[in-house]
Amino acid sequence: MKAFLRADGRKGIRNTVVIAYLVECAHHVAKSIVNKIDHDDVQLIGFPGCYPNDYSLQMMEKLCTHPNVGGVVIVSLGCEGFNREKLSQTIIDSGRPVETLIIQKCGGTKSTIDLGLDKASTILASITDVERVELLTADLVIGTICGGSDGTSGISANPAVGVCFDILLKEDATCIFEETGELIGCEHIMANRAESPELGQALITCVEKAEKYYTKMGYGSFAPGNAEGGLTTQEEKSMGAYAKSGSSEINGIIKPGDVPQKKGLYLMDVIPDGEPKFGFPNISDNAEIVEMIASGALMILFTTGRGSVVGSAISPVIKICANPETYQNLSEDMDVNAGSIIEGNSTIKDVGKDIFQQVLDIASGAKSKSEALGHKEFILTYKTFETTGTSKSNDAIGPSCLR
Amino acid sequence: MSQSKFVLLNNADNVLICCQPTNLGETVDIDEQQYSLPTDIDVGHKISRENLIAGQKIIRYGVPIGSATSNIVIGEHIHLHNMKSDYLPSHTRQSITGE
């Protein structure tokens, strides 16, 4: 496996140029640049809000300096609250090429699109000779999420991803699982896997925070399709979701944008700190995917029972289908058929090994189904954390990371 | 024959999970006894492995996943109509249940 080596020493498995809009008012211009270039490696990301927010700034800084990103074109309207100067400086400091286009200063929509096409093409050409180095399994950072879960998810696709995680962790990779709201009910079982009693307590506290938050919101992380697929309660969904984390020791807690400073298995605490302020913690699956990517995930293992079709900007998404009926219906979107476990045709261990092989193939440049189909969804919303994006080793991102 | 259509995930469980669509009246083996299914059951859904009383914990994966809201007979479908979360209410497109 070969990787793209970045100035900070991190290794990417893709070499993309992201076109980043900083307010909804600049979205059309940014999207038009991406559509006109029509290249797999030129991708759209952005933030819709006009009010400034530390979390969204830090998320955009992490995303624009992600190992899979080689360069950036920032598209600003001009009067929005987003700190484009700081974002640009962070990208420059990372050694990546960056251009900022301000629509109000560039002559309007058409002129900015034309200029953007030119800048993006130049950056794309300039990053083709990025140094390629050997990529080891130990260099991989892999996130996992479930979306459209049903009664089969927890007994096929999710434990199979757990097997894959156990293999990855044994080979010294870094793995991230998330959505503390979907771990409600299994916090004490999870705490027993913590590498220290302090971390165990922090894991419980994290899930309690999620429970309080969702109780205030009036809905758990539980969609109507979950119920149609046989899941009855949040805790039933949680136990199934939890299986994705495998059986390895849990080494720390990170918040969105925190890049793990040592190897191991991390829980991402996606629930904002304090009282609910900006609405639901994650308004759809892609919000969580983006958060894991901001924390350095090079690839996402996405399990689904009902059948999600999404991919993501920046990092490939591998789709693992839990339900054999769904697989029959949506096979064109699914990379792995874990429904074969339900049918009795394969074991959880077999499918876990298949997923691991797919991870290696896609890290080597093969395209996942969602990637080949052009899925590059992206969503970033307002949030607030007490310690967002703090990845310095002396910052509290879980007791185990204090060392 | 229909035994293989349902799976027991943990010996402590009082539910079985459906792995192939099954129809009303179909015979299912539960702990070596035969029962006739009172409804159709879809893949991923649960049936009761024993007679349960209202308030009793529903056990899956060997752990509680909620409580019965009415008495449930062996072989019966367990879902939103006779079970609720011990944490947060579940919602469907039409309503919130289990509050």
- The overall pLDDT of chain A, averaged over residues, is 93
Q: Can you count the helices of chain B? A: 0
The DSSP helix count of chain A reads: 15
Most strands sheet of chain A: 7 strands, parallel
Beta strand count of chain A: 14
Order of strands, main sheet of chain B, comes to 1-2-5-8
Concise description?
By secondary structure, chain A is α/β, with parallel strands linked by helices. Chain A has 15 helices and 14 strands.
Helix and strand arrangement:
The complex is a heterodimer of chains A (403) and B (99).
Chain A: E1 2-5, E2 11-12, E3 16-21, H1 27-37, E4 42-46, H2 54-64, E5 69-76, H3 84-93, E6 98-102, H4 103-106, H5 109-126, E7 132-134, E8 141-146, H6 157-170, E9 174-177, H7 187-191, H8 197-217, H9 224-228, H10 234-242, E10 252-254, E11 264-268, H11 285-294, E12 299-304, E13 317-321, H12 324-330, E14 336-337, H13 339-342, H14 348-363, H15 369-372
Parallel strand pairs in A: 3-4, 3-5, 5-6, 8-9, 8-12, 9-11, 10-11, 12-13, 13-14
Antiparallel strand pairs in A: 1-2, 1-7
Helix pairs in contact in A: 1-5, 2-3, 2-11, 6-14
Chain B: E1 6-7, E2 15-18, E3 27-30, E4 33-36, E5 46-48, E6 57-60, E7 63-68, E8 77-78, E9 83-84, E10 90-91, E11 96-97
Antiparallel strand pairs in B: 1-2, 2-5, 3-4, 5-8, 6-7, 7-9, 10-11
